[in-house]
C-alpha cells in the first residue's frame, strides 16, 4: 500500500468496519431521520466527512457544488496538501485546501487549467467520474458493468466508463420509471444525501477490497472476480411521517374525507428470488461466431477470441452447461478480454477469475484456451449440479473440490457466491441478453 493511502486505510482498520458498525443515532429533531438514504448520510456525518448546520439541520435535499463534493472526497480520503492551481479557487475560500488536495491527487479536474467551477452545481455524471478517480487513486482493482439505463445515450462518452465501473460497484444507481426501466439522469444535479450515498458506498467498496487482502483465510470455495452495473436505485424522496390514528367518529356523523396517500417509494428489482431464474445447465442459444463478433465490436484486438468463443460453445455442449452465458461471464471477468485492472493476464488462459480469492493473488494458470475454458465450465457445473463429470472427461479445475455441489443452480445464484457482488449474476445475464440481440 502506498504511503499516500495510509490515512484512509488506518481509519478503516481503527474503526473495525465502521461502514457497517456505525450506529444510526436517529433523532426526531433532525432532518435526516426517515429519509431513504439515512444510513449512508449518517455514515459520513458520524465519520466527520459531512458537517451539519446546527440544531439537527443537515439539509439532505440541498444541491451540492463541485467545490463541496471535492472537499467531501478530500476529507473521506484524508488527502495530503496540494498545490494551488485554479483562478476561481482563491486561498481565502474555506474549501480551497481540500479542493487543491483532491486536484493534486488527480481525483478532481477543472474545466481548463485555471477554472474549476467551485460554485457550479455538480451533476451525477461528474460525481461518478470523481468517485471513479478516487478508487483509482486507492488502487482498487475494478471492472465495468453493462449499462442498461434507458437514457444511456445521454451519458457523455467521457463519463461512460466511470459510470459503468461505479454501477458495477453498486455505488451509482438510477431512478425507476413508470414503465419499469431505469434512468441515470446524468445531468441532474446531486443533493447532499446523494453525495453522502456515493461517498459511503465508495468507502464500502474500498473497505471490502482491503479486507480481501487482510483476512488471509484458508483457500475458500468462493471465486472473486479481478474486481465488477448494479441495480439502479430510486431517487430518494422525503418520507412523510405516518398520520396519527384518528378516533372513529360517531355513526351519526359523516366520516372524514380520506387523505391522499403519499407517493410510494419505488422498490429496486429483486436479485435473490429464485422464481424466473435461468439455469446454468442447458444448451447454448448463441453461436460461437456471434459470440466472438459481439466482443470484437467492443474490443477489435481481443486475443484468441474466435478460439475462445468456439471453446465455450463446444465444451459447454459436452458438459451440458450454457457455454454462451459462460462466455458472457468471461466478458465481465476480463473486461471485454482487455484484462485491464484484472488480477489475471491473457497468458494464464483464465477467463473466469478462478483462484483470485484475495488482493494480490494471481489466480489459476492453464496451459491452453481449451483447458482454461474447460476449468471454468467444470466450476460452473460444480455449482449447478451434483452430477459426475461426463464420461472420459478429466478434471482440470483445481478448485472443483472446494465447491458445495449444487448450491447455485441458476446464474443469478452466483451473486455473493462466485463473486462478492449482489448483482454479479444479473450483470452476466445482462451481457447475454445484449449478445443475443447483437
Automatic annotation (TrEMBL):
Keywords: Signal. Residues 24-81, 82-145, 146-213 form the SLH domain. GO terms for molecular function: amidase activity. It comes from the Bacteria. Residues 1-21 form the signal peptide. InterPro entries: Cell_Envelope_Struct_Comp (IPR051465), MGlyc_endo_b_GlcNAc-like_dom (IPR002901), SLH_dom (IPR001119). Pfam families: Glucosaminidase, SLH. Residues 214-271 are annotated as: Disordered. Residues 217-269 have a biased composition (Pro residues). PANTHER family: OUTER MEMBRANE PROTEIN ALPHA-RELATED (PTHR43308), S-LAYER PROTEIN _ PEPTIDOGLYCAN ENDO-BETA-N-ACETYLGLUCOSAMINIDASE (PTHR43308:SF5). This is SLH domain-containing protein. It comes from Niallia endozanthoxylica.
Amino acid at each position: 500500500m502506498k504511503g499516500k493511502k495510509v490515512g484512509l486505510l488506518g481509519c478503516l482498520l481503527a474503526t473495525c468496519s465502521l461502514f457497517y458498525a456505525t450506529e444510526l443515532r436517529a433523532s426526531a429533531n433532525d432532518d435526516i431521520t426517515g429519509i431513504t438514504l439515512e444510513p449512508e448520510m449518517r455514515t459520513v456525518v458520524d465519520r466527520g466527512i459531512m458537517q451539519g448546520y446546527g440544531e439537527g439541520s443537515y439539509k439532505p435535499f440541498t444541491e451540492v457544488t463541485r467545490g463541496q463534493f471535492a472537499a467531501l472526497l478530500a476529507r473521506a480520503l484524508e488527502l495530503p496538501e496540494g498545490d494551488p492551481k485554479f483562478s476561481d479557487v482563491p486561498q481565502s475560500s474555506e474549501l480551497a485546501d481540500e479542493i487543491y488536495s483532491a486536484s493534486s491527487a488527480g481525483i478532481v479536474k477543472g474545466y481548463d487549467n485555471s477554472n474549476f467551477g467551485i460554485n457550479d452545481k455538480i451533476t451525477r455524471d461528474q460525481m461518478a467520474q470523481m468517485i471513479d478517480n478516487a478508487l483509482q487513486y486507492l488502487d482498487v482493482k475494478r471492472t465495468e458493468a453493462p449499462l442498461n439505463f434507458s437514457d444511456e445515450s445521454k451519458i457523455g462518452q467521457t463519463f461512460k466508463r466511470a459510470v459503468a465501473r461505479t454501477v458495477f460497484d453498486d455505488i451509482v444507481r438510477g431512478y425507476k420509471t413508470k414503465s419499469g426501466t431505469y434512468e441515470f439522469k446524468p445531468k441532474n444535479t446531486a443533493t447532499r444525501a446523494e453525495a453522502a450515498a456515493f461517498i459511503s458506498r465508495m468507502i464500502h467498496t474500498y473497505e471490502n477490497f482491503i479486507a480481501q487482502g487482510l483476512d488471509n483465510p484458508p483457500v475458500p470455495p468462493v471465486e472473486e472476480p479481478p474486481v465488477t452495473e448494479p441495480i439502479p436505485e430510486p431517487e430518494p424522496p422525503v418520507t412523510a411521517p405516518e398520520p396519527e390514528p384518528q378516533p372513529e367518529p360517531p355513526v351519526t356523523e359523516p366520516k372524514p374525507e380520506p387523505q391522499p396517500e403519499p407517493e410510494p417509494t419505488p422498490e429496486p428489482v429483486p436479485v435473490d428470488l429464485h422464481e424466473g431464474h435461468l439455469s446454468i445447465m442447458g444448451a447454448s442459444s448463441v453461436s460461437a461466431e456471434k459470440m466472438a463478433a459481439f466482443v470484437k465490436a467492443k474490443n477489435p484486438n481481443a486475443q484468441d477470441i474466435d478460439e475462445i468463443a468456439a471453446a465455450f460453445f463446444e465444451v459447454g455442449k459436452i458438459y451440458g452447461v450454457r457455454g454462451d452465458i459462460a462466455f458472457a461471464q468471461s466478458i465481465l471477468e476480463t473486461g471485454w478480454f482487455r484484462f485491464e485492472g484484472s488480477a489475471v493476464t491473457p497468458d494464464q488462459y483464465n477467463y473466469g477469475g478462478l483462484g483470485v480469492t484475495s488482493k494480490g493473488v494471481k489466480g489459476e494458470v492453464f496451459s491452453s484456451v481449451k483447458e482454461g475454458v474447460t476449468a471454468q465450465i467444470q466450476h460452473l457445473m460444480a455449482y449447478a449440479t451434483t452430477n459426475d463429470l461426463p464420461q472420459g472427461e478429466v478434471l482440470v479445475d483445481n478448485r472443483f473440490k472446494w465447491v458445495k455441489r449444487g448450491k447455485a443452480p441458476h446464474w443469478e445464484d452466483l451473486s455473493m457466491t462466485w463473486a462478492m457482488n449482489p448483482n454479479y449474476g444479473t450483470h452476466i445475464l445482462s451481457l447475454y441478453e445484449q449478445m443475443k440481440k447483437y
